[in-house]
Amino acid sequence: MQITQTTSSIATTAEQKLARLKSGAIFIQDTEERIKRAFELAASQKDNVDFIIWLCKQTCILSKNYKTLISKYSEGFRSKLYVFPLESISASDTNFLKLNDLARNKKCFCIIDDSSIIKNAQSGCSQRLFQLGPKFSYRLILSSAPITLGLIDLYSQLQFMSPQLLKMSYIQFSNIYLTPITNRFDNQKMWSTKHQENMLIQKISPYILDADLDFDYPINRYNLYANLTTKEKQSYDEEKERLLEGRDYVHFMEIFHKFQHIYTISQNKVKLLCEILSKIRLKKEKVIIYVKYLDEIRFFQESGLFDSQKYVILNGQCNKKRAFSDFSTAIDTMFCSYGVDNLGINVPSYNNVIFFSQTFSYQFKLQAIKQALRGNTNQENKNKRINVYDLWVNTGLEEMVQQNLLMKQKVIKRVCQKISKEEALRL
Q: What is the pTM of this model?
């Protein structure tokens, strides 16, 4: 369900709510529409505001496309607009003190895009924003995906938006809105139930000023599984024993990365990748392959498997614009590290995404799919479905990752559908 509020009566309702509550949230996936709606609401309070404080990621500030959108919709605010990178709130005392001075002495309208960045309530950035929040005359949070891990992601976003809304600590929030669940691996996780999700959304719905969260993406999803060879299985078991030998305490994520790194370039998984790529090339389509470790990219470079085909590599050391330009014009295959492709870059049209190695971060996988969908904007491609291939190795660790991602996907979909439904009921 897509809810796009465009009529003057709906806009007036949002403006009235903002004027009364002094804070609110906009949950819209499309970056341009999200920015546009934020400045429209800010304009409704223009006579009551001295400055607009816009907080976003540093990568957005450096993006030409993002800056163009800010310039396009901030007309009338140019002399009143301050843009700060969120990272600098905790890293720079100078910026923090400047913001604090503005908030104390001027009537400021603070907007955070994307507020999911501050989902970690314990981070230095979140803690400082909690201090600043009550000093701003108006507060508005924007997000394309308000939760990526689970309901707990909303705590710090709502705490900044309106401390009076929750009136509880992080621990109290966890106890009320999350339930401990033990899975077949004997790992206890805190997940929310439908009842808990409905409780929270009903509580925060008056603050949701606009929402367009449709997670029913037009995709074809394929899960492909590879077995370790006898030799690989033996090597994997031996390496696990070596890593665990003599340890009284195990840090799960450290061990997870080390274990996964052992088998990530397994023979049968590489074979699966080659088979998928052969079919894609026959159709003369473009594909992005997501990998987790630099060793994986190095393997593909040195193995000679793709010497007959051109490909481009996108990682932290590459020129992103050049990589996307090559991918757009002349090259049909890209190897990309998770999280490197940021949202501010124009992407070409492509219809295939391969997750070669797996990650617990549903946010990265969701971003990758949305990136592909953003590229299909012209009439010829916008109705095409995206093919998403997940490559798995048959180990207990991979099964755990898959179950974790499925739980996150279910919670996110339920919450976003409920938020959109609440908006629809107000029409």
A: 0.76
